[in-house]
Amino acid sequence: MSSRGPDRPRGRPTEGRPSIKSLFNGGEPARVRGRAQFNLRKRLALVVGTLGLCSVALIGRALDLQVISNEFYREQGDARALRDIPIPTSRGMITDRNGEPLAVSTPVESVWGNPQELLKHPQRLPELAQALGTPADELARKLSQRADKEFFYLKRRINPDEAQAILAHKIPGVFSQREYRRFYPQGEALAHVLGFTNIDDRGQEGLELAFDDWLRGKPGSKRVIRDGAGRIVESVDLVSAAQPGGDLTLTIDRRIQFLAHRELRNALQRTGANAGSAVVLDVETGEVLAMANLPTYNPNAVASTPVDHRRNRAVTDVIEPGSTMKPLTVAAGLEAGVITPTTLFNTNPGWIANGRYRTTDHHNYGVLDTTGVIQKSSNVASAMIVHKLEDRFFFDFLARFGYGRKPGSGFPGESSGVLAPPEKWWGTTKQGMSYGYGLSATPLQIAMAYAALANGGRLLTPTFVKGERSEERQVLDPAIAAHVMAMMRTVTQTGGTATQGAILGYHVAGKTGTARKFNASGGYSRRYVSFFAGVVPVANPRFSMVVVVNDPDPAKGYFGGLVSAPVFKNVMEGALRLMDVAPDDIDTWLAAQAEAEAKRLKANGGKPVAGAPVLPVTATARVTTATAVLPALPAPVPEAAP
């Protein structure tokens, strides 16, 4: 028996068993293995190709985003890291005419926070609130309201040491930045002239507002990189350089300003008045040397003062000028030729009809000459003069002196006053205007008019800026102005209404005024405004000053010669000394010195007193006499008034 078995075919493999050749082909038939090997390679190539294409696409997209079209994402990145932050600049300094600082800017710190960052650390908010001195619930509420913001002021314009104490807590999202705060060394004395700035250092009142563009300058800007906590990592670029504000030199003399402020305050305390104003002008230049108002306020702490105390009454408030109008009425009569300095006025019995009213004098002055009209302040004689003047002429004359028109100083809110045209006058208007009723003006306008009389009839536009050229108009013949000045000299002499305004060693030309205040019922009350307007010295006028005291207590005196004239005297005595103005009344000065010396000798038993004042030789050499002959008036001599 064969070993292969009787029924196995020779030479053919047994069914279901792989052949030797198939074993060498991986256990599969040769035909099947070849087909499988071909599909695997194809698949592998497909996968590799797909991955390659994806890689190329990703690389291409990355190249497009990072190199070719990268602006959008660069902007998005910059928006999260780059910041343009301001470079603060200091506001220009304001000085007086002598270079003394009146308004300066000092560096301060402002603490700010990032609400988004702070709200991530709510457990630190009570600590921050305590450092800021703010209730914790209020701080949390404010931050919640700004949850979508990245900037919020926590405390502004504080002392740098205080800011560092807050930052020392190292609370995430709290930072500080440099700012500037305005400081006014003169405080209340110059508050109305200077005004003040707000928390953003922008002018709000006074000259701070008028010259805000010049003083403010222009803040700069720089680009920086901030990290996620808001800290500056690197300064990238200077976008624009900061331009400091320009300095401003005023015509104000702080020494005269202080005198005016002090004496005005003393007058209000002495008379029980509720408000007052004082203006001092340089006659030759129109420069405002002082301008004081009461009540006043502290410009370093504005928030705590009433709004009513902040206005500059000398520029904004209009008042009926009362008897300060009489020198202008006389000047109008002299110019029109209807009176002369020697014209006589019979004021008996001390009143004159004015429609259904009466114009009365304080006393029955009898017969007065033109000088007496001003010296005694006669309403009746003033009415007689204005009756001789045409309506249009009198209106135009007052308008020439600046009444009814803004002074043009550039001060914010300056008023034009009220000067109605003749078409709007009624029965008593013209007569009342002759002694200061029926029109209104500001203290600055009155000071301008008196400066024009002292300046040979030249009206100058007032200015607050040193070196600024004043506009000039000839409004009155110099000869007439000189005659009126000579008449006003008698007001402060014996027999005048303002002897308390006299200044030893100087001739003073002035005029008192006492105007009744208008009431709500359409008439005049028994409340008053007291005036004194004056010029000194007469021989060589240097200063024009107006003092207005509102609503003095009638029980303590309300006439301008008692209330306002002493303020003029005290301020002008100091100003004349400070400006080294030579006296023009040496005889009176020497007589007073001799009288004082005689009293000292008598009190000392006839022996000389050591240290007695003596007039300096240099001052004697500078004295200018005031006895020059007045120029002749170019007007005919009319008949005496009835």
TrEMBL record:
Enzyme Commission number: 3.4.16.4
Pathway per the UniProt entry: Cell wall biogenesis; peptidoglycan biosynthesis
Family matches, as Gene3D superfamilies: 3.30.450.330, DD-peptidase/beta-lactamase superfamily, Penicillin-binding protein 2a (Domain 2)
Catalytic activity: Preferential cleavage: (Ac)2-L-Lys-D-Ala-|-D-Ala. Also transpeptidation of peptidyl-alanyl moieties that are N-acyl substituents of D-alanine
Disordered: annotated span: 1-26
Cell division keyword on record: yes
One Pfam match: PBP_dimer
Topology of the protein relative to the lipid bilayer: Single-pass membrane protein
Domain Penicillin-binding protein dimerisation: 87-235
Taxonomy, superkingdom: Bacteria
Key words, A-Z: Carboxypeptidase, Cell cycle, Cell division, Cell inner membrane, Cell membrane, Cell shape, Cell wall biogenesis/degradation, Hydrolase, Membrane, Peptidoglycan synthesis, Protease, Septation, Transmembrane, Transmembrane helix
Transit peptide as UniProt keyword: no
PANTHER family: PEPTIDOGLYCAN D,D-TRANSPEPTIDASE (PTHR30627), PEPTIDOGLYCAN D,D-TRANSPEPTIDASE FTSI (PTHR30627:SF1)
Cited function: Catalyzes cross-linking of the peptidoglycan cell wall at the division septum.
Family membership noted in the UniProt record: Belongs to the transpeptidase family. FtsI subfamily.
Protein name: Peptidoglycan D,D-transpeptidase FtsI
Gene field: ftsI
